[in-house]
Design a protein that fits this description.
homodimer; alpha/beta; 19% strand; 7-stranded mixed sheet
């Protein structure tokens, strides 16, 4: 393939790093509710905030999708891009995963880091194409994955350029600009990259359309799915999982000639700082 | 500056190539009305299409902004990204500028090509940030400017991913997704690049906010304006021009320490295929 065509896209949650027991960005939102609570006395009595502050996750979950959106809105927007980047950076430096006690940025998959490096050594540009928030990922993706901010595609809030006491800022609005999931992934790819990648890597049905779009182009193509099969070293889930559900991808992988990676059998080591098993 | 910070953004119309007597993308729209007219008998009697088909530009102009949007909608959307790219490519191969009879891609500015090459030789990533349509530019920007599709930012129609007889396509909808002009330029930069460039180049007040955003960051910054002062070799226009109006930029350039490039006096040669004057 000519060098200009060597573009590979990677889902993030469950593909480059873990996504259990909750999406790491959601863990950030929960911690941020606690950090911001002193300025919001009304949260003491209002769900889902009350549940977050009291550690009552059942009450949080009971608020459903509407509650999740309220948490994201309260913790992700209204600030400027610089302020939000700072909040993510502080959190990432101190937060620890509840099961492994590792920093979240140490919950990345070593075989995927090797794949990213291998592709780049062969002239590929590597992009993240994630349902997660683009500004949540950009602050650490370069250090952790070697992927610079301009190669990170994700969901976006609308932004507004404005002057604050004469100083220009980009303010993050409480309006969705782009949801980079499912059929939104090929759209996000076209918006930012402007040509069809030749390789794509995902782990859930949220990646189905990206894999379909990438592997249905002309010439050699590669589509691959990371299948979470290792309950001991990581997690095992696919059909019926509320996070990272994988059904259609498994059903159609063989017919579409997508590679299914079996984490338990195919990966000697999962996390970079772990002894080989 | 560290290599990762070396990002430079360039407006396109009037900064990298000419924009007179009409935006070249508008010339494409006019030619495309003629090319598509046989499938649209109603255009024979409806403005602004009637005016385009009869060469009556006064009638076209009389329809105002509403008419311009009707022309763009009729010629730019409803197709797939692949179909549109093909239409642009065919047009670019055969269309000629009305004054110089050059291909439009030969109406680029040699000193700006040299600047792009100089910055890249010094580790910069160069991006286009244009009010023009991103899909209009991507097909030829790499060959003409050395700028790949993923480094082109522009105005966008919304897109929808769908299957046509089982084959996935991205259909361009008749809805605006992003207008990459004025305060939309810093927003487009953040959406795609995700960090603030350290150098920006423009020519009109449509570039004002981009120049302001780029040059108000910390550390060394460069903002520059191409001032069209050469009525003999190119065009001379600024204040009050309907295309490429430049007023606030001229008024504030000195106070903001933006470089104003005087085309007539500073550029020995304008187009690449022209003898030095």
């Amino acid at each position: 393939m000519p060098p200009a065509a060597r573009i590979a896209t990677f889902d993030n949650d469950g593909t480059l790093w873990a996504e259990q027991p909750i999406y790491f960005q959601f863990a950030f939102a929960l911690d941020r509710v606690k950090a911001l609570a002193s300025g919001h006395p009304e949260w003491q009595t209002r769900q889902p905030f009350k549940g977050v502050l009291e550690g009552d996750m059942k009450a949080v979950t009971a608020t459903g999708e509407r509650g999740m959106l309220a948490l994201i809105a309260a913790t992700h927007v209204g600030n400027t891009t610089d302020e939000f980047a700072q909040a993510v950076s502080s959190w990432m430096a101190s937060a620890r995963h509840p099961r492994t006690n590792r920093p979240y940025t140490a919950m990345v998959y070593k075989p995927m880091l090797e794949l990213l490096a291998y592709l780049r050594a062969n002239g590929f540009k590597t992009f993240i194409v994630s349902g997660g928030g683009v500004e949540f990922m950009r602050g650490w993706a370069e250090q952790v994955y070697g992927i610079p901010p301009e190669q990170v595609i994700g969901s976006r809030a609308r932004m507004k350029y404005e002057l604050r006491s004469g100083v220009p800022v980009l303010r993050r609005l409480a309006e969705v600009d782009h949801i980079d999931d499912k059929a939104g992934k090929p759209v996000g790819i076209q918006q930012v990259i402007g040509r069809r990648p030749i390789a794509a890597f995902g782990n859930s049905d949220g990646d189905f359309e990206m894999l379909e779009w990438v592997t249905s182009g002309p010439g050699p193509r590669l589509g691959a799915i990371v299948h979470h099969t290792d309950a001991a070293r990581e997690w095992a889930y696919d059909r019926g999982s509320s996070i990272g559900r994988l059904e259609r991808g498994l059903d159609e992988a063989a017919a579409r000639r997508w590679v299914v990676v079996d984490m338990k059998h195919d990966w000697k080591q999962i996390y970079p700082d772990e002894a080989k098993q």
